[in-house]
Amino acid sequence: MAAETQATEGQTTSRGEAPIKPEYVIQREVNKAAATEAAPLAEESKRDTGEKKSGQNKKRAAKNKPKPRQNAVRLCRSVAIGEECPLGAACKSSHDVAAFMEKKEPDLGSQCPIFDEFGKCVFGLRCRYAMAHTTAEFTQVVDDEKVQKAQPNQVLNQMSRDMQIRLRKRLEKFPRTQEFDVQWQAIMKDKDAQAGSANTEESARDAQDDTVKTEQAPKRQRKARGRIDYRGKTYLAPLTTVGNLPFRRVCKGFGVNITCSEMAIAGNIIQGQGSELALLKRHASEDIFGVQLAGNRADIVGKAAEFVSNNCDVDFIDLNMGCPIDMAFNNGGGSALLAHPRKIERIVRTMLAATDCDITVKFRTGISRDVNVAHKLVPQFASWGTALGTLHGRSRQQRYTKVADWDYIGECQNVAETMPLFGGGDVMSWEDYWGHMETQKQCDGIMIGRGALIKPWLFREIEERRVWDISASERLDILRQFTRFGMEHWGTDTQGIANVRRYLLEWQSFLHRYIPAGILEVLPQKINERPPPFVGRNDLETLLSSPLASDWVKISEMLLGPVPDDFTFVPKHKSNSYE
Prior knowledge:
globular; 11 strands; disordered N terminus; disordered C terminus; about 575 residues; alpha/beta
């Protein structure tokens, strides 16, 4: 937004718009910058398909990919930290420190967050803050006192290269999944077409019990199933791309109880894809943590669940039956499973047979807007032994538009029997949260997604039952903390900084939608109300509220230094939920 734009007086609020105090609202006709910036993207979208795409900018990947720097020298990782390269002459990276330093981009600052936290930096000369821990002779400084105090193994569930190779070569075995699959097929083969389903369920349950008893004990100490009471706990939704580990750490700092990984594709896990295995990582601060799997075949999902249970420190594994995106739906996964209750049963029972941790499910009201099926599935989830169900109060067809149907969530809770049922959708204030939990008594807990992306301090507001009129400087401090967590996670070399910037910008596509509490005429802010163009109470607040990707880049430069001259960014999410 242009800072010089004048606010209007006495402007009425249109339907679907947030009620901002008139002195902060700016005239629409002068808010031309957003329209100018959005025009090329809109034209490209029309050329691609002839119609507007909803939800995501699907052609953005090539635009956001970092451009290779000309004449850049790729320094060997071992040499960068002052060690001898084990590959010697066979190493494909450069060992010429002088040439690397001559071509290296300028440092971004005088303090390295990794060195400050751990006493040494594993990126050495490749670090974009290298001078903070490098002598004039290019040797690395180590702060022995900090090294001794640093807490090791803060990031759990890191898969070794050897494990990845085992998965790729199909050397990893999944005996519990395979045994139960054989038993299930035998049950289905012997079942009479007209027999009641009760005998089938009982036989399947017996087969499951036998599998668990006969299987050899795993190598590591497993957490017992059923030890967690989920009721009344706040739950950060598994969020693709933006629900990364640094973001979850930010939310843990504001008091969220339960966290979950980004959605991981089961087939990619058992094939050993590095990017998918990276989604399994857990920070030590995540005291109740689960991994969410997506897939449409019981044997594949079962194997992935067995692998996670055997090799990762998790409290639960969640089955995704809520993802509405075309890629998952057209492959029979995500919300497409809601049309196949028998397939769901087989997948859930296989996951239960293959693991010892809790199995949870996340699902929607149904596929079509006017055809609800969740109330039929909830009692079955409970009877199969599912530890927790989470119902998003929209259908797949609705995606994230319209309002969530909390009355229907309440109806489903009434048939959930002993299984806790969480609800989700449109919660963005402590009033929303406690209204559903205590006033309407519609659920046993609430999963929060977009509300946490827009205002991660929502969890503190819920705990303290008050609105926090957070200042712009405090909001910037949250972003600064995210970048520090991000550099610890992705690194401080050029590639690591690029990753931190990318995920910061993706998050900013949600963060900018927050309307400061102090400029609202009516509290609380509603997630489906579009803010009219407005100015903040100071220049920083105005900048943080800008819908322009170019302004988001400026924010990233305040935290991570200047971007390359050819840098581009197209956000993944269009935030079409205002429609």
